[in-house]
Design goal:
globular; 7-stranded mixed sheet; mainly beta
Length: 123
C-alpha cells in the first residue's frame, strides 16, 4: 500500500490551495480516506475524512466551511481543497487510508499513511 501526497506549497493568508493524494497497491474503493496534519511542536490531528463511496464527509471544527474533501475512485485519488487559509493551517498534511464499511467514517485507527506535504500560510 502506497499513498503519495502532493500539491503543498506557500500561500498567503486568505488564499487557496488544493492538495491531492494518489493511492496504489490496494482496493481504493474499499477504503475510508482522511487528511491529517501536524504543525511543529504539536500532535498530529484529524482534518477531514471521506467514506469509501464519497457519500459521507467529516471535518474538524477548525476547518469546517473552509476545506472540502473529495475523492475519485476511478483515479484512486483524494483531494483536499483549502480555502480562506489561515496562518494556523500551516502544517505537514498527511493522507491516510483504512478499511471501512460503506456506512462508517472513522477519525482514528488509520493504517496506511502517505509521506506528507508541507502547507505554509504566510500571515
Amino acid at each position: 500500500v502506497q499513498l503519495q501526497a502532493s500539491g503543498g506549497g506557500l500561500v498567503q493568508a486568505g488564499g487557496s490551495l488544493r492538495i491531492s493524494c494518489v493511492a496504489s497497491g490496494r482496493s481504493f474503493s474499499r477504503s475510508a480516506m482522511a487528511w491529517f496534519r501536524q504543525a511543529p511542536g504539536k500532535e498530529r490531528e484529524f482534518v477531514a475524512g471521506i467514506s469509501r463511496n464519497g457519500g459521507m464527509t467529516d471535518y474538524a471544527d477548525s476547518v469546517k466551511g473552509r476545506f472540502t474533501i473529495s475523492r475519485d475512485n476511478s483515479k484512486k485519488t483524494v483531494h483536499l481543497q483549502m480555502n480562506s487559509l489561515k496562518y494556523e493551517d500551516t502544517a505537514v498534511y498527511y493522507c491516510a487510508a483504512r478499511d471501512a464499511i460503506i456506512t462508517h467514517l472513522p477519525r482514528e485507527n488509520y493504517v496506511y499513511w502517505g509521506q506528507g506535504t508541507q502547507v505554509t500560510v504566510a500571515p
